[in-house]
Amino acid sequence: MAESCDGTSTACPADGFATAGDFLAALAGTAGQPAGSQVAEALRTWLDQPGVPLVHASVRCGKGGARAVVRQERLLATGAKDAKAAWIVPLCLRLGALEGRRAETVCALAAGPKAEVALPFCPDWIWPNAGGAGYHLSALAPADLPFLLPQLSVDEKLALATDAAVLGQRGSLPIPDVLWLAAQLSREPDRLLVEASVRLLQGMGPERLPEHEQRHWRGWLRRTYGARARRLGWLARPDDDDEARALRRLLVPLVAGEGEDAVLAGEALALGRRFLADRRQVPAEAAWPALEVAALHGDRELFDRVAAEAAKATDVAERARWRALLGRFGDAALAAAAVELAGAEGVDPREALATLEAALGGGGRDAAWNLLTARWDGLAARLRPDEATGLMVAAASACDARSRSQAAAFFSPRAAAVDGASRALAAALEEVDACLAARAREVAALARFLAPR
User: Fold this and answer.
1) Which residue among 6, 151, 276, 435 is the one 20 to 30 A from 238 at the CA level?
2) Strand ranges in 63-186 using DSSP code E only, listed in sequence order
3) Structure pTM?
């Protein structure tokens, strides 16, 4: 590893380049320490190996005092763990005792697969990422979450939610526990925590359930977020602050669309039709999300009106937006009609791209796949590398074994011709593998968790 120098630093050799070792020596010198100091060696462990550590922290109390036992391992994308990788982790532990509500923070460098950190008292709880500022994942024990969560600050809860999302997607935290955490955070007054709860749902949703169980997922969404979404409603109020507007954009389309809330979905259809009749009647910030929800349950009449808007739009970005909306129609026949329009003679490939990407994630997947594979060479030649890559990833991302097999067989030999596509495709297929494994492993427990009580 070499970094270019501007010639002004004493850490730079005469030829203007520095190695990683030169950089670490300069860093240690700035800290007033020798080149092989703990500061330099700690940073070296982050430069010399990929990934991020998963940190486990437990407490041992005895005659010799209280100590935190810190173990680390590298969590691989597949969910497997590599105990050989070892960082020197800058670690700040938050610990507390219920009696007197005592809480303190202890910081140390935890080196190697296992380390011990002296503690000032024997705590009732411990969290290995004080302030949520650490560059590591924290292992989460499901049994500890109900007790630990109320002890944490907003920043620490955000870090915990991030850890839970990664661990859940990798199979290291049971999905019912991830969704339990999402439900707890959904009730928080802080908007960022509500947003974190929704992010926890990514990769945890209906794609992991058989079709006949998906109604329970929709019911869980309504039970968890519905009351708050209905209070917010689709349209802004004069007394709304930035927090309310942000939550409205987040929760109302989720509950109305994926949650299939009858009240909000009906309002979305009405607002969409009013906007199509006269755009002055509905603010655009409400109209477009409402139209996306309306399309999921829309009929032929709504489809034809959206198609007419796409045909007459003169602005390229707006036309692409209408075409993407066509691809969102949930009815399979209408989704197939959208794909047919995208493949019509004279349609710009980038506008077709908007429809295809939307259709690949919904009821038009089969029609979109057939068009995509039949015309790939012509499409790819007219798209930027990032656009072609995005289309491959969209086609490869369905949590379905047949779709995964199709995408791997068709795109793997073609991705090499598109800059950056091979790596992106491999990552997408790996995510699908994780989703399929989670479905097989946890579908029964997830169905039990989601079922109405």
Assistant:
1) 276
2) 65-75, 81-82, 88-97, 102-111, 114-119, 125-127, 137-138
3) 0.83
